[in-house]
Design a protein that fits this description.
Layout lengths: L1 E10 L2 E7 L4 E5 L6 H13 L19 E8 L4 E8 L4 E5 L7 H7 L2 E4 L4 H5 L2 H15 L3 H20 L5 H40 L5 E6 L7 H22 L10 E6 L2 E2 H4 L2 H21 L5 E4 L2 H5 L4 H11 L3 E5 L11 E7 L2 E4 L1
Parallel strand pairs: 3-12, 3-13, 7-11, 11-12
Antiparallel strand pairs: 1-2, 1-4, 4-5, 5-6, 8-9, 9-10, 13-14
Helix pairs in contact: 4-6, 5-6, 6-7, 6-9
The protein binds adenosine-5'-diphosphate (ADP) and magnesium ion.
The site of adenosine-5'-diphosphate has 16 residues, from helix 1.
Amino acid sequence: MRLLTLCAQDFRNLERVEVSTDARFVMFTGENAQGKTNLLEAVHTLAALKGFRARRNRELLRHGQDAARVSGVVFDGESRRQLSVELSPTGRKGRVDGKSPAQLEEYFASLRAVVFTPEDVAIVREGPELRRRFLDRAAFTARSGFLEIAQAFRGAMEQKSALLRQERPDRLSLEVFNERLAIAGARLSARRDRLVAELHAPFIEMHGAISGRGKVGLRYLSRLGDGDEAARAERFRVILGENLQAELERGAPLDGPQRDELELTLDGRSARTWGSQGQVRSLALALKLAELSAARRRGARPLFLLDDLSSELDRLRTGRLVDLLASLDLQVLVTSTDPQVLGDQPDQLRYVVEAGAPRPC
Ligand SMILES: Nc1ncnc2c1ncn2[C@@H]1O[C@H](COP(=O)(O)OP(=O)(O)O)[C@@H](O)[C@H]1O
Ligand SMILES: [Mg+2]
């Protein structure tokens, strides 16, 4: 997959941008607070219909504007497609070749992107929620159908939570909702597990390549165990049955895949607790590189959006990382304050970004 062009209008501080991105490496350099990361976020929005920093659409709209637009031409090796997103304070609308796709999946299949930003160290360092979010995003990027699975689980959870908040929840309804939840939860858990199985070997390999030190481990610890989908559903039914009374008393759901953990270890110890700053950074980056590598093994070629290359990787061997990225054979869009960070990699387009305007350099 290659993004050939990128246009952004009233997206954060990008008033009107139109650039060619038709190269293996696209580099946005410049001083701080000029809009480099905003350009990557525009690409991410084009792929996922949401930014990677913004919580709300409104943050993505240029101050004082009530609409923003991002568009681009994507080449998948066979054909070109024009993707566009229109953002309003409350909504988003994606189009493929000018038409609204019947299914959102159809839109997402047109362009997939994996992003790594300095803030991603939090995936390793913070609580399990961020690791679950990483897993779910990666599962979404990896395959069609995950969105539906995640939404089914969330829907079942919300329905049950609403019931439990009632004064006297109807027990029969609760049992019906629990059965729905058991099935949705088992599917979610099995999908996450499958993804982690795919990430495992590339994670070790990528970590070795960028760090070279320490034995790393990656394991999905699901409350629903590690059997097949049916076994997980059965395990969840048992948990839900055991917790029925306690949930009624608490007025909230207790246990389930919403509490699962993605365990990251370094030399057998929890990376979260024991990892140094540099180690945590390498692990977070290795996770994202593993995601890209696993995608390549499946024959997919997502874009890699790498934010703030130099500052993030001072201590890692940046040159080695750049060679590694080149070997993955994916399109990489990079931001950095250091214009030389990619060295003399061939097939490289460079822009300097100033006050929201990129110009070739
Ligand atoms: N919604 C918005 N409207 C206008 N400007 C914005 C908006 N959101 C962020 N900005 C501006 O974008 C700039 C930061 O851009 P960013 O891409 O993070 O910079 P950097 O070049 O350091 O990566 C800041 O000047 C910020 O004020
Ligand atoms: Mg930035």
